[in-house]
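User: Can you help me understand a structure? I only have the sequence.
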Amino acid sequence: MIKKGVKQLIAEAEQRSTGISVEAARARLGDAGTVFVDIRDVRELEREGMIPGAFHAPRGMLEFWVDPESPYYKPVFAEGKTFILYCQADWRGVLAAATLADMGMQNVLHLEGGYGEWKKAGGPTAVRDNTKRETKQA
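Assistant: Let's start by predicting it. Here is the structure, written out as tokens:
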């Protein structure tokens, strides 16, 4: 038997994180001081598209990519910008934003309603850029 369910974890994470509305997030699209971070699985990006210019950081690797002492560290997270995390429905986004806040990161927001609300509100979308992927040689 589990002690806490997903609903309770998300409710607790909402207390430790800050959301941003789709309208406010759209106003930041293209802003040099803001990085949209898509934390969905790569298959979701390929199937659904993504917010134009978003940085893909899979949810399972996010903490490792943020921590400068991790061998998986990504310098994009040291640029002193505002990060807007999003997933499909904002459940993972809320949990991820709370975790990064717990790690001491500032200026981390989660997109309220996630990518689903972004699309529903007519936010721009883009096809995932596969040109950066490594191809395996036969």
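Now, to help you interpret it: Residues 42 and 58 are 7 Å apart (CA to CA). The radius of gyration is 15 Å. Let me know which part you'd like to focus on.
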